[in-house]
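Slide 14.
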Amino acid sequence: MNSDLFSLFEELGGEFISPSSLFTEKWQKIKAIVFDWDGVFNTGVKGHEVTSHFTEADSMGVNMLRFSSWLRNNETQLKTGIITGQNNESALHFAKREHFNLIYMAKANKSEAFNDLLKSFDLKADEVMYVFDDVLDLPVAEKAGLRIMINRYASPLFYHHVKSHQLADYISFNEGGENAIREVCELLIGVNGNYEEIMNKRSAFIGDYQRYLEDRNQAVTSKL
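Slide 15: predicted structure.
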């Protein structure tokens, strides 16, 4: 199944920098997922008193991935966080709405935030997945166990840099603002091997999904 899964994402334009076996091995170690915000959940467009946005498709993808991993890992919740270089109220709203554990805001030095996250959750760097899109993120990408880069066609030299230095394990075919997060989440649910199960249980909205949601919603988001 995994070989067909990886082929599907490659046919659509995704690129695996790490071989499928290594990608799967890395994912199996992950206990926390950390996202950059601008350029990942959105296009990164800025303006006076304009806050960046997110889509429900991406939000549902993250939730379904968390449910998938909760089922696969004996009802243990993945830790979740955002590290953004801006004071972004939209990111804070999303983190609170989705009951993420942490959000670091206005963190120009993302490596410091990442190190603090490791201490907060008593994690090793290879137990964290990082989803990113630009140069500010590279110090974290150098450390994280699984690295997903959100593609941007306007940055061919950055793409080459990340690929040649092996700073990502997968590069998406969708760009930020085009539901790239949903793409990444569906890939990882596919690796978990329980896509049909979570779709059926989420649609029914009873039993396991209700228990997962009650458990997820116990998390109170810390703003740091």
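Speaker note: The longest helix spans residues 56-72.
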